[in-house]
Design a protein that fits this description.
This protein has 134 residues and is mostly helical. It has one domain. It has helices at 2-26, 32-55, 60-69, 71-84, 91-110. The longest helix is centred in the N-terminal third of the chain and has 25 residues, at 2-26.
Length: 134
C-alpha cells in the first residue's frame, strides 16, 4: 500500500508539473483550478479503489492498470468524495464511508463478483395448515 501511494503521488506530481509548465507556456493558467480538481478527483478515487484492489490481491502493476482502464470510475468516486466533504457537520464522517461502499460495489460489479439477482420477486409461500380436531 505504501509503495502504491508513493507511485501515485509521484505520478500526480509529474502530471501537475507537466500541466503547470504547459499552462505557463501557452497562457492557459485560467484553466488551472479545473485541471487541479480533475487530477485530485482521479487520485482520491484511486485511493478508494486501492482498498478493494489490495483486498482482492491485485499487484501494484495490476492496480495501476485497473485505474488507467477505469478513469471515469476514478473521477466519479473522487469527485463524489470531494463534494460530500463539504456537507456541513457530517461530510467528513459520511464521505469516506459512503465512497468506500460505492467503490466496493462498482469494483465487485466490474470483476463480476456480485451475486446475480433474478428477475422474479422472491416470495414466501405460506401454506395454511388446517387444524383438525381429533
Amino acid at each position: 500500500m505504501i509503495f502504491v501511494f508513493g507511485i501515485t503521488l509521484f505520478f500526480e506530481f509529474i502530471i501537475l508539473g507537466v500541466w503547470w509548465l504547459f499552462s505557463l507556456v501557452t497562457g492557459l493558467q485560467v484553466v488551472n483550478p479545473f485541471i487541479y480538481v480533475i487530477v485530485a478527483a482521479f487520485f482520491y478515487g484511486f485511493s478508494f479503489y486501492d482498498y478493494n484492489l489490495e483486498r482482492y490481491h491485485r499487484s501494484t502493476k495490476g492496480s495501476l492498470k485497473y485505474s488507467t482502464h477505469h478513469i471515469l470510475s476514478m473521477l466519479i468516486a473522487g469527485g463524489a468524495f470531494m463534494l460530500l466533504k463539504f456537507v456541513p457537520y457530517v461530510g467528513f464522517i459520511l464521505a469516506p464511508i459512503l465512497i468506500t461502499m460505492l467503490t466496493t460495489i462498482v469494483y465487485l460489479y466490474s470483476i463480476k463478483k456480485l451475486p446475480k439477482r433474478s428477475n422474479r420477486r422472491h416470495s414466501i409461500n405460506l401454506q395454511t395448515v388446517e387444524k383438525t380436531d381429533e
